[in-house]
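> tool_call: predict_assembly(chains=two)
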Amino acid sequence: MTAMTAASTEDPRRAGPQRRRLGGLRHGAAGPLFIAPFMVLFVLLFLTPLGYAAYLSLFQERLIGGTTFVGLDNYMTALKDPLLREGLLRVAEFFAIQVPVMLLLALLFALALDSGLLRLAKVIRLGIFVPYAVPSVVATLMWGYLYGPDFGPFAQLGRKLDVPVPHFLSDTWMLGSLANVVTWEFVGYNMIILYAALRTIPGELYEAAAVDGAGAWRIAWSVKLPALRPALLLTLLFSVIGSFQLFNEPKLLQTIAPDVIDSSYTANLYAYTLAFTGQQVNYAAAVSFLLGLVIVVFSYAVLITANRRRTS
Amino acid sequence: MTVVSQSSTRAPATPATTASGATASRRAARIPRGRRSPVRRRSTPLTIVMLAVLAYFLLPLFWLAVASTKSTQDLFNSFGLWFSHSPRLLANIRQTLTYDDGVFLHWLLNTVLYSVGSALGAALLATAAGYGFAKYRFRGNGTAFNLVLGAIMIPTTALAIPTYLLFAKVGLVNTPWAIVLPSLVSPFGLYLMRIYAQDAVPDSLLEAARIDGAGELRIFVRIALRLLAPGLVTVVLFTLVATWNNYFLPLIMLNDPKLYPVTVGLSSWAAQAQNGGAGASSDMLALVVTGSLISVIPLVVAFLMLQRYWQSGLAAGGVKQ
């Protein structure tokens, strides 16, 4: 233990050159060995399927002549495919509405928890986080029953009190109902990330701000929010990835509302249908490759925007 | 990912994430904050608002707990958010566990097997690799790490279809490996462990061990692994949740109901409950509800019991960046 405590107080800059001399060169050979198992599986299970999808997407299965190389034909078809466009637009709309609401709520809850003004703070924090541990399948089933127009408790209450309750599973409300399920699942997770980031802000910053005469709101705005930037960016990135791959929730609500959610309701659902119901493997590969591309482009756009804001 | 790595230089450094494990980093998170006076002011309005928020998050789970005490008939006939006159939780549980030769128990066991196997494997791989990236300098270190980091953005579902096709070629489809193997690689876990290892394992400690003549593997197993424990537990828990809750991958990989995890099994029951009105499936709804409750409990308990670890792991590693 003495070695460890001594180490933690040591200046890291002074440890630097020493490490290079002793550790870096002489023990460098062990580094690749530690990362090798991970990298091997990474290549096998990430890069290989990715390459395979790219390869498959360049072929087409034809009645005459079997599988033939068609270049970028599948992508051309996909770009003109109204079903894919519709699915992509729908998830884009979902992203535009659901993600700001979810992250704003997560931020507000994290700030409320960090303010120290709450009673029962621990219970509240864990209670909001608990849905994250609930499988999305179960979450969707539960909300599906709660939404039910005949036996759902909201509908029951509405009938009893003679208040009209919207038909949550209808065409107009479906996207909002899905957004509610996803928000319910992930607000707590994002809140915990933001809350954990708030806890790492050193107390001296608050003291300095208080000495300067800043109130609670001012401190939240000028000290806490800037410090939360990297964590917010992280949650935003995960939300981009999550929204554009939306699959589980619509797939499960499909059994209750088959007339509203068709097999191309989201882009991912469409790719799944193509591959496993339509047996159009090559086209499905092109569609999922395009979907992946959209997500990567979107993620980078988020990063670049955030980067530019900071430097300007 | 440039922004993320840039921000690392700006983030405030917590001093003593080094010493033994969770308690230490918790203490570290608390010590520097002198802003909380012993006499705390509490806000009742804010508490009431947050309790209302809490009610929203607990409402579906409350419904689930209430609903699992009802027969399928009562599910339709009684008010959804309160108990019926004839509670039958135990009967429901017995029925859920014995239906169709106890297939639900199979699903539960499968889920435990898949998720514990993937979580332990993924966490060990990510910890070793994160430690390797953080503590050794070698050619290609940066390139390899950035390659993996870029993969965080690749949607897993875009990978799932080609993975299925590849696995079909080598005969892995419809085996447990089809679920476990893809879950072993966790780019985010690696990212987290690299950041965590940077601070948690002091270089001078490694030097001291080397001077004492310990081999690199021995140093990792005997010294580093213990210091990395909170980060490791965090990765274990989050991979566990990801695999436990995974639906898409088992849905496409498995045909044999005996191999299903709980998620796919429950959704197949739910589809039966929706479609079949008569006969055996008329009781299905109660089974779906009770099965859902049973499948939720283990993870919730695990999270509550291990909160000390994952919260400190997230605080020290995941967010500090």
